[in-house]
Each structure stands twice: as structure tokens, then as C-alpha cells.
Design brief:
The complex is a heterodimer of chains A (about 375) and B (about 250). Chain A is mainly α and about 375 residues long. Chain A has helices spanning about 5-20, 20-40, 60-70, 85-90, 105-110, 125-155, 175-205, 210-215, 220-250, 260-280, 285-305, 315-320, 325-340, 345-365, and strands spanning about 50-55, 75-80, 100, 120. Chain A is about 65% helix and about 5% strand. In chain A, strand 1 (about 50-55), helix 3 and strand 2 (about 75-80) form a beta-alpha-beta unit. The longest helix of chain B is centred in the last third of the chain and has 16 residues, at about 175-190. Chain B is globular and about 50 Å long. Classes of the chains: A mainly alpha (about 375), B alpha/beta (about 250). At the A-B interface, helix 1 and helix 8 of A face helix 2 and helix 3 of B.
Chain lengths: ~375, ~250
């Protein structure tokens, strides 16, 4: 351990960073831009499907049913249509995403105490978008049934036998942004830091400065550590900015201890920087290294639980996700920010990140050669 | 010219049957010679003759495939890091940070070599002897070819090494800058530093105290310019001899 050598290396990296303000600005602006874009754009809580109604019953009962549907916010009544074909056409043509069809005898059958039929057509080409609409339609149907059955049997006075009340915890309004913002912090940190560090060593190789560097007494790990220290700071600034903007714009709460969050983030940043360094030792030029880095970027988005719940993945994909630091960080940051957890609950994830950090850094140092072979 | 090296002094560099193979190609083929302390030693040869490979082995940047080389008392194959701490090396391509100023590059290498409190004094010395005094705040990337070269030598000598390797230092530099650079090399040698220089400019041969001529990885001539001339019994200049050798091996 030589403090002066390490300090020189770190200082050099900082000066170089300062000399390239365009890149520095990008490193700070891109996370905020991504946050705003993703925060506003990613909506898993799809609502307000444009809906047409073919009401052959034209009764108070059918109108009441449509009203119950629109009251769920999942359906917005666009217009009435006058044939089944027209309803299908509206969905086919994309003007409507759902159609509600009442047969002529809807009200009559209800009054007689028979089963009245109503058809709800939902465009399910996008499963995420149609899911909540389908659920809402079924729920409205059930509620109507319960009410009618109770009225017929006179059982309402005694109340319902089972009353299920679901209370959404941590994100009671079920807002996507609240869930997504902490994830975005993880994804941005991971993707940006991996690429930056992967490029920084290979750039020295390409410009010829590495040859002059490795003929000095600098130890391999001093070179590696000197490369990442400045970016730990960059990572912290990025994380703080995104968290702050997320709090102000999307009202994301921070319920857990900030200290635990920053501690976990440190482990995560170092793990990604280590991975970046490791990737940089796998290629000889910037093109190769960029391609290798991309190998990690897409799985990071798709398999870490950032976009899709890991619970829904097949075993192989879940297993692959376990090899990504982001998977653990997402659990950490969501736990701390949304659920108010601390390290008491989340120490296994923190431990995993520490393991990644040490392992990647060691691999990178091991692979980095102070020769030109 | 520096004084003739005393015979008794230990050799500062010693190559014994040094070999470097890259796959099936033998870049350096059983080369042996030694270099005395304080001399200006030239490694000459056409492109592809093994000069750069030899110098990189001597600096611990490449591992010899066979044979040994002792540099400043350390074996390059066994203790490459010890060798690195005792030598200065100036690579063929400009290897300093273009986005750092002259002072920042010097301070960086000073720090890397652990100069501690001696840094300021050493930095002033380097700028003075390398004729960079006015350029401290200039970005290295915008320096002229000759200034870059002198800065590179300054960085390589911040830690006052006893031996300095310069790989093709005068390539692509204008004649005036080349002359100034040779003046600086002679000054450093006069202070006792061993200066080992590769070049493919045959007209620079007369500037060396002693030289080794490589062709296709083999040592074909060794000695002072006068000795080499005698070895080949030629009436012409060293340049003529080397051109003839080169044509013979081509």
C-alpha cells in the first residue's frame, strides 16, 4: 500500500474528468433525463381503455352496469355503436380497446331472475394493458351478482359471509412511478458506471498512455483502485440527484434509514465499477469492450426485476438474475425507500453486493497485466 | 561525449542469449551484449529488426522466452517490478496524458515514483534541463513534436533513474528539435546516467559511445563506431555499412 502513488493516480483521474466537461455533464444529465422519461412513460397500471358499447337492451340496468365499469377508471366510454360488427370493427381498427355488448333481453332476464348475459371484449394483444381491465370487468360482474343475489334472498341484512379487504401496503395508490424510481436509480448507476470504467482502461491502452503507466512501479491494484475512486463519487452524485428529483417530481418517499441506503449504494457502485474494470480486461479496444458491456446491460434491465417481476420468470432466467448485482440492489433500495426496511432485514443482499464488489475487483486485478503480452 | 566507462564498474545492463518468440516468429534471437554505466548506447536496425522488442524486455514489459537480462542489478524475468522502479522508459508513441498540462504530467509521474517532498525541486529541475520552463501550464496535447519528446524524457527521469531507455525518440521530429534532444541526452549521460536509445536513423550512429546493430532479430555488429567500422573493414561511413548489412539480410 503506497498512499502517494494511489493519491497521484486518483488526482490524475479527477483532473482528466474535469478537462472533459462534456462527458461530465452527460454523466450528470443523463440520469435525470432517464428518470423523467421512464418515470412518466413506464405505467404498469394501465387505465382508461377507450370503450364502445353496443347496448341492445337500452335499459336502466344496462346503463347502470356500464356506469359501474367506467367507475373503475379502467374503461372510458367513447361512443355507442349499433351493431356487433361495428363493435368488433372499433376494436379491430384500434379506435377502442374494449367493447361491451348487451343482448336485447338483458334487463328482461334480470327481472325474471334468470341469468342475464353481458359480453366484454378486451383487446389483449398487450397482456399488461388488458390485465387490469379484465380484472375490473370480472370484479364489477361479481359485485353486481352479490348485490342481486342478496336482494333476491334478502340476505343483505345479515351482511356478507366473507368480507375480503385488501389493503395495499407501502404504495397504497399503486402508482408505478413510486415503484419504478428506485429501480431506475439502480439501473442507471449500473449501466453508466459499467460502461465508463470499462472504457477508461481500454482508452488508455488505445492512446498509448497505458504502456507508459505500466512501466512505473504502480501496483496493479493501485491502478485499478485509482481508476474507480473518482467514479464512486460520480455514482453517489447520480444516485442523490435521481433520488431527489424522484422525491420532488414523483413524490417517492424515502422511508428507511438514509445511512443504510448510502452504505448499500457504495457496495453496489463498487461492484459495478469492478465489473467494468473486469470487462475492460476482456477486450483490446473500445469497440470490443462496448460490445462486451452490452452483454450485461440488457439482462440488467430484463432479468434483475427492474422491468418484470422475477417471481414470474422461468427458473433459468431467475438463476441468471442472481448473477447480477442489480438484482440484489433493487431489493435493497426498494426495501429501504418504499418499505422502510433497514439492514436488519436486508443484510443478505448487502452481503451479496459486498461479495460481488470484492470478487469483480479481484478478478479485474488478476487479469490486468503489467506487461504488453 | 561522456568519458570512457571504467572497466571495473559493474555493467548496468547485461543480456545473455536473450530470445523472444511470438508464436512461430523469433523477434529477438539469442542476443548477448552489455552496456557500461554512463554511456550513450545505441540499438540500431531497420524496422522489424527487434529493437523495440529488446528494449521492452529490458524494461520488464515483455517476458523473455529464453535467456536472461540484468538491468540495474535486477533480472527482468524474475523481478520485472524491481527493474521498473529503477529505470526510466520513454515509449515510441507519445505516452503521456494529452489532457494534462506539462506540470500535471510531471507531478503525476513524480507521485507515481514516490518522490514525496522532493517533488517540487525535481519538477523544477526537469523543466529546466529539458528546456520546458515556459510551458508548465500548457496542455501536453498541444505541444510541438520536440516539446512532447522532451516532456516524455522529463517524466521518465523524474525519479532520477540510473538508466533510461528511449525507444525511437527522434522519429518524426524536425532537425532543430532533434539536435536539441541529442544535446540533452549527452548532458544526462555526462551526469552519469546510462542512456540507451533505439533508432532506425543510420545517420545518428556516430552519436553513440557504443552501439549494437540488429538485423532480423540477430546481433550483427557491436562496439564503438570506430570499432564497428574496423570490424567491417569499410572505407565508407557507418551508414554505408548498415545499408549494406540491411540489403544483405533483406
Amino acid at each position: 500500500m503506497n498512499a502517494e502513488r494511489l493519491r497521484s493516480m486518483v488526482k490524475k483521474e479527477f483532473v482528466q474528468m474535469r478537462r472533459d466537461p462534456a462527458t461530465l455533464r452527460l454523466m450528470l444529465a443523463v440520469p435525470v433525463m432517464q428518470l423523467l422519461i421512464f418515470g412518466f412513460a413506464i405505467r404498469t397500471d394501465v387505465r382508461h381503455l377507450p370503450t364502445v358499447v353496443f347496448d341492445q337492451s337500452r335499459s336502466q340496468q344496462s346503463r347502470a352496469f356500464v356506469q359501474s365499469l367506467t367507475a373503475t377508471d379502467n374503461f372510458v366510454l367513447k361512443r355507442q355503436v349499433h351493431s356487433y360488427a361495428e363493435a368488433l370493427q372499433a376494436v379491430d381498427g384500434g379506435q377502442a380497446r374494449a367493447a361491451v355488448v348487451f343482448p336485447p333481453d338483458f334487463a328482461r332476464e334480470l327481472k325474471r331472475g334468470h341469468t342475464a348475459r353481458v359480453q366484454v371484449l378486451v383487446d389483449a394483444s398487450d397482456p399488461t394493458a388488458s390485465q387490469s381491465a379484465i380484472g375490473a370487468a370480472q370484479l364489477v360482474g361479481q359485485r353486481t351478482n352479490v348485490r342481486l343475489v342478496a336482494e333476491r334472498t334478502g340476505a343483505l341484512s345479515q351482511g356478507l359471509p366473507v368480507d375480503v379487504r385488501v389493503r395495499p401496503l407501502y404504495n397504497p395508490a399503486l402508482k408505478s412511478a413510486v415503484f419504478i424510481v428506485p429501480g431506475i436509480i439502480g439501473m442507471i448507476l449500473s449501466n453508466i458506471l459499467i460502461v465508463i470504467t470499462a472504457l477508461s482502461i481500454v482508452r488508455e491502452r488505445e492512446t498509448g498512455t497505458l504502456e507508459q503507466l505500466i512501466v512505473t512501479p504502480l501496483a496493479r491494484w493501485e491502478i485499478m483502485l485509482g481508476k474507480i475512486v473518482p467514479y464512486v463519487l460520480v455514482g453517489y452524485i447520480q444516485m442523490t440527484t435521481v433520488l431527489l428529483v424522484g422525491h420532488l417530481v414523483f413524490h417517492v418517499p424515502v422511508r428507511g434509514p438514509l445511512l443504510a441506503l448510502y452504505g448499500a449504494t457504495f457496495l453496489f457502485i463498487v461492484a459495478n465499477l469492478g465489473l467494468g474494470l473486469f470487462i475492460s480486461t476482456l477486450g483490446r479496444n473500445q469497440a470490443q469492450v462496448t460490445q462486451t458491456a452490452f452483454l450485461f446491460l440488457l439482462p440488467n434491465v430484463l432479468l434483475s426485476g427492474f422491468m418484470f417481476p422475477r417471481e414470474a420468470m422461468p427458473a433459468a432466467a431467475r438463476l441468471f438474475g442472481l448473477a447480477l448485482p442489480l438484482t440484489y440492489y433493487l431489493q435493497l433500495i426498494r426495501g429501504i425507500v418504499l418499505k422502510g426496511n433497514g439492514l436488519t432485514e436486508l443484510w443478505p443482499q448487502a452481503l451479496a453486493l459486498a461479495g460481488f464488489a470484492v470478487a469483480f475487483f479481484a478478478f479485474a486485478t488478476q487479469r490486468f497485466s503489467k506487461t504488453l503480452e | 561525449m561522456s568519458a570512457a566507462a571504467p572497466i571495473a564498474a559493474r555493467e548496468v545492463v547485461e543480456l545473455r542469449e536473450l530470445v523472444k518468440r511470438f508464436g512461430s516468429v523469433t523477434a529477438v534471437d539469442h542476443v548477448s551484449f552489455s552496456i557500461h554505466p554512463g554511456e550513450i548506447f545505441g540499438i540500431l536496425g531497420p524496422n522489424g529488426s527487434g529493437k523495440t522488442t529488446t528494449i521492452r524486455m529490458l524494461c520488464g514489459l515483455l517476458r523473455p522466452s529464453h535467456g536472461t537480462a540484468l538491468v540495474a542489478g535486477a533480472d527482468v524475468a524474475v523481478e520485472p517490478e524491481r527493474v521498473k522502479s529503477r529505470i526510466g522508459y520513454m515509449s515510441q508513441a507519445f505516452g503521456l496524458y494529452r489532457d494534462l498540462t506539462v506540470d500535471e504530467n510531471l507531478a503525476f509521474y513524480g507521485g507515481v515514483y514516490n518522490l514525496g517532498p522532493a517533488l517540487a525541486e525535481r519538477l523544477a529541475w526537469a523543466k529546466r534541463v529539458m528546456r520546458l520552463d515556459e510551458l508548465g501550464g500548457r496542455l501536453s496535447g498541444v505541444l510541438s513534436g520536440g516539446q512532447k519528446q522532451r516532456l516524455a524524457l522529463a517524466c521518465a527521469m523524474m525519479h532520477a533513474p540510473e538508466v533510461v531507455f528511449l525507444d525511437e525518440p527522434t522519429a518524426g521530429v524536425d532537425p532543430a528539435a532533434r539536435r536539441l534532444f541529442w544535446t540533452i541526452i549527452r548532458e544526462r549521460a555526462a551526469e552519469g546516467v546510462t542512456m540507451i536509445v533505439t533508432t532506425h536513423y543510420m545517420d545518428e550512429a556516430e552519436r553513440f559511445d557504443r552501439l549494437a546493430f540488429l538485423s532480423r532479430g540477430k546481433l550483427v555488429a557491436l562496439g564503438s563506431p570506430t570499432e564497428v567500422k574496423q570490424q567491417f573493414g569499410s572505407e565508407g561511413s557507418l551508414e554505408d555499412i548498415f545499408v549494406a548489412l540491411q540489403e544483405r539480410d533483406a
